[in-house]
Amino acid sequence: FAIPNDRHFPFSPLLDGREQLMYEIPLNESGSAGLGVSLKGNKSRETGEDLGIFIKSIIHGGAAYKDGRLSVNDQMIAVNGESLLGRSNHAAMETLRRSMSYEGNARGTIQLVVLRAPRQVQLSN
């Protein structure tokens, strides 16, 4: 199904307040630089369970930087229609790598679904 480029995914916020957002991000002309983000896999301190893949930083000049919609600490939950949920961090990273190298380059864009935590709002007295 087609979703307009700059719209919030048509879901209400999740119970913990995070928003689910879908973005179609144009890759750089050659596509060789990929998305231009540094990723981290988070694990539970208590159980060692994989908790998902998050954006650690956005590389200046890369596709994500030029697009401007992704944020540090966004959790990647799907890429080009393929869910990353329920996968080990290693398997999720491999899926991301594969999507950016083949399918992403052929289309010239990469479709990402991310979870974003709410901004911390300072309440004044």
From TrEMBL:
<feature type="domain" description="PDZ">
    <location>
        <begin position="24"/>
        <end position="99"/>
    </location>
</feature>
<protein>
    <recommendedName>
        <fullName>PDZ domain-containing protein</fullName>
    </recommendedName>
</protein>
<dbReference type="GO" id="GO:0045197">
    <property type="term" value="P:establishment or maintenance of epithelial cell apical/basal polarity"/>
</dbReference>
<dbReference type="InterPro" id="IPR052213">
    <property type="entry name" value="PAR3"/>
</dbReference>
<dbReference type="GO" id="GO:0030010">
    <property type="term" value="P:establishment of cell polarity"/>
</dbReference>
<dbReference type="GO" id="GO:0008104">
    <property type="term" value="P:intracellular protein localization"/>
</dbReference>
<dbReference type="GO" id="GO:0051660">
    <property type="term" value="P:establishment of centrosome localization"/>
</dbReference>
<dbReference type="GO" id="GO:0007155">
    <property type="term" value="P:cell adhesion"/>
</dbReference>
<dbReference type="GO" id="GO:0035091">
    <property type="term" value="F:phosphatidylinositol binding"/>
</dbReference>
<dbReference type="InterPro" id="IPR001478">
    <property type="entry name" value="PDZ"/>
</dbReference>
<dbReference type="GO" id="GO:0016324">
    <property type="term" value="C:apical plasma membrane"/>
</dbReference>
<dbReference type="GO" id="GO:0005938">
    <property type="term" value="C:cell cortex"/>
</dbReference>
<dbReference type="InterPro" id="IPR036034">
    <property type="entry name" value="PDZ_sf"/>
</dbReference>
<dbReference type="GO" id="GO:0005912">
    <property type="term" value="C:adherens junction"/>
</dbReference>
<dbReference type="Pfam" id="PF00595">
    <property type="entry name" value="PDZ"/>
</dbReference>
<dbReference type="GO" id="GO:0043296">
    <property type="term" value="C:apical junction complex"/>
</dbReference>
<dbReference type="GO" id="GO:0000226">
    <property type="term" value="P:microtubule cytoskeleton organization"/>
</dbReference>
